[in-house]
UniProtKB/TrEMBL annotation:
This is Exonuclease domain-containing protein. The lineage of its organism: Bacteria, Bacillati, Bacillota, Clostridia, Eubacteriales. InterPro entries: 3-5_Exoribonuclease, ERI-1_3'hExo-like, Ribonucl_H, RNaseH-like_sf, RNaseH_sf. GO terms for molecular function: exonuclease activity. SMART domains: EXOIII (SM00479).
Length: 325
């Protein structure tokens, strides 16, 4: 398997958000990629400038950051041709790698706009090198800039940042310095093309956690009624386990619970409600091993939420009483 380490640059509507094309808020104007073998040796590179078709002027921030002119881009390839060349160059046995998750999402959004999304079947498993850098060198939660990573590892800055091929090379340099086991155990799943049926749903069990990505539901309430979503199960022994803290939501997007397995200890669950482009909802659910201190932290979150809700009800009742005087 080869690694395709890629980076994109894009433009946005120069006239403000209210005049942007809702189907394509970000138009790709540059693709850069480096192909690595399993030993992280460079096998080749890919680079294309893209001729803009949606936004015919460059946003001032894009021009400021990238230093590109419209005249430069007008000599580029059309996206329709460039992306087909890119995917052909990638080959058959490969895994995408990028700094963060946005590039892969925007690649698919641009492909969908041009009717090419069937060339790249999803959901797509990939390596988020930004996340891997945090797992290897920091706390696993922080998300740093690419330049920060280069400075942290004392990698020589031989080219300017914010050019697709340059940033792809820098990302590849960082990937090559990350332990192979960290890479293998921490792949990511892009769900721009989320599961559409029960058969397409994703179940992944890795070291220390389980991830489940559901099909679509009409509403959040319908999703939470689904047994597979609301259930708590120990991913190590497969047994259904008793919840110590039932699912609760802080902001209607994220739900939390705590369960206990007699053999493996505390488990913490998190459900993230995701809105698909068609307006329906799907769920990304993770179950992880947890320490007692983490269980206590989640219980405190729930108790704080309960107190706030009680206070709001009390204040609403008081206002109603005053209005009726």
């Amino acid at each position: 398997m080869n690694y395709i380490v890629f980076d994109l640059e894009w433009n946005q509507c120069p006239y403000g958000k209210d005049r942007e094309n809702p189907r394509l808020p970000f138009e790709i104007i540059e693709i850069g990629a480096v192909k690595l073998d399993e030993e992280k040796n460079v096998l080749g590179e890919f680079h294309r400038l893209i001729h803009p078709m949606v936004y015919k002027r460059i946003h001032y921030r894009t021009k400021e950051i990238l230093g590109m002119s419209m005249k430069m881009l007008e000599s580029g390839d059309f996206f329709y041709d460039a992306v087909k060349d890119f995917l052909e160059w990638c080959g058959e046995d490969y895994r995408f790698c990028s700094w963060g998750s946005m590039d892969l999402t925007e690649l698919q959004r641009n492909m969908k706009y041009y009717g090419l999304l069937d060339l790249l079947k999803g959901p797509i498993r990939y390596y988020d090198v930004q996340k891997l850098f945090s797992m290897e060198y920091e706390d696993g939660k922080s998300r740093r800039s690419l330049e920060y990573g280069i400075d942290y590892l004392n990698i020589a800055k031989t080219r300017d940042f914010h050019h697709a091929l340059t940033d792809a090379y820098y990302t590849a340099d960082i990937l090559a310095r990350i332990d192979e086991e960290v890479i293998r155990m921490n792949d990511s799943i892009d769900c721009y093309q989320n599961p559409q049926s029960r058969e397409e749903e994703i179940h992944v069990i890795s070291e220390g956690y389980e991830k489940y990505i559901s099909r679509e539901f009409e509403s959040k309430e319908d999703a939470m009624k689904e047994r597979e979503i609301s259930a708590s199960r120990c991913f190590l022994c497969g047994k259904n386990v008793r919840k110590k803290i039932r699912w609760f939501s802080i902001n209607s997007k994220n739900y939390y619970c705590v369960a206990y397995c007699g053999k493996h200890g505390y488990l913490k669950g998190k459900i993230r409600m995701k809105k698909a482009e068609d307006g329906k909802f799907y769920v990304v659910k993770t179950i992880k091993l947890a320490g007692e201190d983490e269980a206590v932290e989640i219980r405190e979150k729930r108790d704080i939420l309960k107190r706030k809700r009680r206070q709001k009800k009390k204040e609403a009742k008081q206002r109603l009483t005053i209005d009726n005087l």
